[in-house]
Specification:
The protein has seven helices and eight strands, in the order H-H-E-E-E-E-H-H-H-H-H-E-E-E-E. It is an alpha+beta fold and 245 residues long.
């Protein structure tokens, strides 16, 4: 549908026209927050979100519904529900989406499922050099969400038993809490996909507290502890990655 006009459209008109093109018809555009008919607040108008049908593989996007997803090797995802029937041979992980947050949980613990030390040694004595990576305060540690960067900081001394494929990392404390919040649903999806259940046990996070210690999270009750010596304490490791680019 082309509109011929001899004058430029206003920003409001342009926004409405784009919405009309996107919807394909006036009735659907009206339903988009009554935008076409009289809504003078374009920032409040929401484009219709794509429907996510149970069992149907689709490419992930930022506007897809919150929930737990089976992530396939080709990048497509299937919204997981308890009565789902779907082929799982190409599933490489279980994704969780909470608002703008997304994380893919590996099907198996690292280190063949054993509780292992996080590193082969500590970071040394120059704490000032590594200070941006140390979170002594609990609240700041919980807010730490960049597990990928924290894992890179640990990588030179990372325990070789913790094998991480390209694009995978050890979750930060904040990321691990998101796993804990969705513990039951993630485990049901892992079981469905043939993965190993996450245990109600202590797991390492990549959030360090000092040159010698890192935070661990107990998935039996959600308690966090920073008295884990990286080079001698032992916890499980569940790698994670991103699944929405």
């Amino acid at each position: 549908m082309e509109v011929q006009t001899n004058k430029a459209l206003s920003p409001m008109q342009s926004f409405r026209y784009e919405l009309l093109q996107w919807c394909g018809n006036v009735e659907d555009a009206k339903k988009a927050n009554s935008f076409v008919m009289g809504n003078e607040n374009p920032e409040q108008a929401q484009l219709p979100k794509p429907e996510w049908k149970h069992g149907e593989a689709q490419m992930p996007s930022e506007d897809m519904p919150d929930g737990v997803y089976l992530v396939q090797a080709d990048g497509q995802v299937v919204l997981f529900v308890d009565d789902l029937t779907a082929d799982t041979k190409d599933v490489i992980g279980v994704g969780i989406k909470m608002g703008s947050f997304n994380l893919m949980v590996a099907l198996h613990d690292a280190a063949k499922g054993k509780a292992v030390a996080l590193t082969t040694k500590d970071n040394g004595t120059d704490e000032n050099k590594d200070d941006p990576y140390y979170f002594k305060d609990y609240v700041q540690a919980v807010e730490s969400m960049n597990g990928k960067a924290y894992t890179e900081h640990l990588r030179p001394i990372l325990n070789p038993e913790i094998e991480l494929s390209d694009g995978w990392w050890i979750p930060s404390l904040g990321e691990m809490y998101r796993i804990f919040i969705n513990f039951g649903a993630i485990n049901r999806a892992l079981k469905f996909a043939g993965g190993d259940l996450i245990k109600q046990d202590w797991y390492w996070t990549s959030t360090e507290i000092s040159a010698t210690d890192a935070w661990g999270l107990g998935l039996s009750d959600g308690s966090a502890d920073y008295w884990f010596a990286k080079a001698s304490g032992t916890c499980r490791v569940r790698p994670v990655s991103a699944f929405i680019s």
